[in-house]
Amino acid sequence: MKMLPGVGVFGTGSSARVLVPLLRAEGFTVEALWGKTEEEAKQLAEEMNITFYTSRTDDVLLHQDVDLVCINIPPPLTRQISVKALGIGKNVVCEKAATSVDAFRMVTASRYYPQLMSLVGNVLRFLPAFVRMKQLIAEHYVGAVMICDARVYSGSLLSPNYGWICDELMGGGGLHTMGTYIVDLLTHLTGQKAEKMLMGGGVCSTVTLNFNMPGAFVHEVMVVGSAGRLVARGADLYGQKNSATQEELLLRDSLAVGTGLPEQGPQDVPLLYLKGMVYMVQALRQSFQGQGDRRTWDHTPVSMAASFEDGLYMQSVVDAIKRSSRSGEWEAVEVLTEEPDANQNLCEALQRNNL
């Protein structure tokens, strides 16, 4: 019987607490767990019944039974671990990096090892509503795309204790944590990239992020074209042609979640993203199953996933948004093609702090 790869999980937060049971439900074996401290790793390992745990990165990466590494840790640490994992010959699924420089280094590593999986875990891409929306846009359901509008409303992302999420230089803040994935999703759906804080092809996009809205989590993505519109409200997809008098339900996501998941995990992860994680793990299983070697994989089941190049692009758009906010001008999106001088980055950081 051909085996799925053993998994090494980096992280002990909400995402890791959800990911471990989802991996097991699809037949993966979680062989190792990494935590920032030995105590954190031990606590979750005992809770999740994971035999091997550590606070040493190499202990997971060099584990003989780990062939797939899932990285769900603060952004400042993502680049270091993902690049090292690829260099050792492990497949990688990770969260976004903290900076464009880190993202560029991850892209460079992925290009050195193109046979290895190197994916950014934007789970929104795996949701059936967005898979179907992309298909309908390609089939000209909305005609020529003219407007994209996205709204995300949520309660505060901050915790009582100061952490990385409070610092934009560490990849914190709502723009980094959720805004980057919305940017990536809109480009994935339309095939158009942001150029000068406007999307190419004459498409205008508006993204509203509000993390001061207690109550129900709101996530809505709308694409309007010359012939109609498509709207994803949560995990359900609606559409309306210009000739129709009312919109129609095109896809309802009936996935039931909660079975086998820890009580604390799903409460900290919006249902939309939790469903996306379920579909992503299912796609990973389909990608690895039936392969002759535990490290080989089929690209087709994960063809909708974001690559490390996509991760660099979404970070570049966020950088342009920040520059535009400071200058009051329309700033161009500049994607790194070579690593910048470290001293220049330091000077620019000092200048921003002085301002």
TrEMBL record:
One of its GO terms (cellular component) is extracellular matrix. The keyword Transmembrane helix does not apply. Gene3D superfamilies: Dihydrodipicolinate Reductase, domain 2, NAD(P)-binding Rossmann-like Domain. One of its GO terms (biological process) is extracellular matrix organization. Signal peptide: none annotated. GO terms for molecular function: nucleotide binding; oxidoreductase activity. Residues 7-109 form the Gfo/Idh/MocA-like oxidoreductase N-terminal domain. Keywords: Extracellular matrix, Oxidoreductase, Secreted, Signal. The keyword Oxidoreductase applies. It is found in: Secreted, Extracellular space, Extracellular matrix. Residues 130-196 form the GFO/IDH/MocA-like oxidoreductase domain. InterPro entries: Gfo/Idh/MocA-like_OxRdtase_N, Gfo/Idh/MocA_oxidrdct_glycsds, GFO_IDH_MocA-like_dom, NAD(P)-bd_dom_sf. Belongs to the Gfo/Idh/MocA family. Promotes matrix assembly. This is Glucose-fructose oxidoreductase domain-containing protein 2. The gene is GFOD2.
